[in-house]
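Continuing the series of single-chain predictions for the mutant panel. This is the parent chain; the variants come on the following pages.
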Amino acid sequence: MKPSRAFDLDPVLGPVDYVFLGLKAHSYARSGPLLEPLLHEHTALIAGQNGIPWWYFHQLAGPYEGRRIEAVDPGGATSR
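Parent structure:
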């Protein structure tokens, strides 16, 4: 097994296999342009956060299915 290395956010790195995020929920909507250069088809995003995550209702069967929490996913920016 090849050892893992950690880096500060640097788009010059190019696509990586894992991205560990430590953001407040309201910051996810603005993080897309920063993260995009780091992603490829199989990149795993690991989000460490507290509070209500933006994906709270994602694929949740019931009366709230398909709803977003606008405060943490404004206009669907985070889920995109």
